[in-house]
Amino acid sequence: MAENELLAAYKSVPIVTRSLLTATVVLSVSAAMQFLSPYLIMLDWPSIIYKFQIHRLLTSCFLTGLGFNMLFDLYFLYTYGVQLESTTYAGRSADFAWFIIFTSFTSAGAGYYFGFRTLFQSMLLAVIYLWSQANSERIVSFMFGIQFKALYFPWVLVAYNFLLSGAVVPWNMLAGIASAHLYYFLESVYPARGGRRWIPTPFLLYKLLPPQEVAGAGFAAGGGTANVLRPTATTAAAEAAGHRWGRGERLG
User: Fold this and answer.
1) 230-238: long-range contacts, CB 8 A cutoff, minimum separation 24
2) Per-residue pLDDT of the chain (252 residues; tens, 9 = 90+)
3) Which domain covers residue 22, as residue numbers?
4) CB-neighbour burial class of residue 151 (10 A; exposed 0-12, middle 13-18, buried 19+)
5) Which end of the chain, C or N, has fewer beta carbons within 10 A?
6) CATH code of the domain covering residue 104
7) What is the SS3 string spanning the chain?
8) 173 belongs to a structural domain
């Protein structure tokens, strides 16, 4: 009975967030226990460029240290990943998966210049940043009950990490924020001003994760979760397939 309840709880987590959590636990524990060499999956641009080991662009997102920090990170990923996928991306797990892929690849590009080998913190901050944009007016609490608007949450985490690390700039966290902001601008802000969608979700992802119509999902102009700036699941899938239907003309 207990096993069934645990399995049901696991399956209740939205599919993309569940996959991120599972991959992080499996790869991080395997690397820490020496079942798998971390040097085979961490971000290493010479191996990517000269050996065509493209998998590192994604596997490096799931490497984090064990211990309390890992539990803390997994809790954050679970909390804000589930909220994004079940509200802002409700019925559109393919779009959420594309957000993760786009921001991971963008953060990996920053890693080429700044030299960091893992992208988990970048992925985590990307998720938190997008959540903060979709819930900008919500009040959140941090250490010792300090309260502030969700809009500032990513920057509070960066400042907290900066102080704990002895004034070392957390470039990996900043890369995650920058990549999420780029995605948010190209996918929501710019189209809302009359521009085109420059980074539509690849149609292959819609094949793997079929969209479902759910009312009330998306970004609002000033924060929130209204769907005024986001295409519906069906529209997004149609655009990805190359169909852009007009509104038509009334007959007669």
Assistant:
1) 230/188, 231/197, 233/91, 233/92, 236/92, 236/95, 236/200, 236/201, 236/206, 236/211, 237/94, 237/203, 237/206, 237/211
2) 566 778 888 888 999 999 999 999 999 999 988 898 888 999 999 999 999 999 999 899 999 888 788 888 999 999 999 999 999 999 999 999 999 999 999 999 998 888 888 999 999 999 999 999 999 889 888 877 788 899 999 999 999 989 888 878 889 999 999 999 999 999 989 888 888 888 999 999 999 999 887 655 555 433 443 333 344 444 444 444 443 333 333 333
3) 11-239
4) middle
5) C
6) 1.20.1540.10
7) CHHHHHHHHHHHCCHHHHHHHHHHHHHHHHHHCCCCCHHHCCCCHHHHHHCCCCCHHHHHHHCCCCCHHHHHHHHHHHHHHHHHHHHHCCCCHHHHHHHHHHHHHHHHHHHHHHCCCCCHHHHHHHHHHHHHHHCCCCEEECHHHCEEEHHHHHHHHHHHHHHHCCCCCCHHHHHHHHHHHHHHHHHHHHHHCCCCCCCCCCHHHHHHCCCCCCCCCCCCCCCCCCCCCCCCHHHHHHHHCCCCCCCCCCCC
8) yes
In a domain, 58, yes or no: yes
Q: What is the pTM of this model?
A: 0.83
User: How many domains does the chain fold into?
Assistant: 1
Please report whether residue 2 resides in a domain: no
Q: Is 1 inside any structural domain?
A: no
